[in-house]
Amino acid sequence: MNKINELIYLIECIEDLLTERIAFEKVQAQTKFNVQIMKAHQRVSLAEKEYYVKNTRSLKSSELD
């Protein structure tokens, strides 16, 4: 009976470890996704700023003509 209890305890420990591992991997995946979203947002913001600056320069140069 003692061996069965030890096996049950080991299985429960393994189950706990796997549960924690899955939770950790979910957090990792979510963090990676959030970083990708932030990088994409920064690229879009930079592109919008560059577009605005370019158009502002075009307007100023056409006003000078």
Structure overview:
With 65 residues, this protein is an all-alpha fold. It is 97% helix and 0% strand. The termini are far apart.
Fold blueprint:
Layout: H1 2-64
Features:
single chain, mainly alpha, 65 residues, rod-shaped
Tell me briefly what this model is.
The chain has 65 residues and is mainly alpha-helical. The chain has one helix and no strands.
Low-confidence stretches: none
**Helical region count?**
1
Distance between the termini: 96 Å
Listing every helix as H and every strand as E from the N terminus to the C terminus, the arrangement reads H
Q: Beta-sheet strand percentage?
A: under 5%
Major β-sheet, in short?
A: none
- Let me know the average pLDDT: 87
Shape: rod-shaped
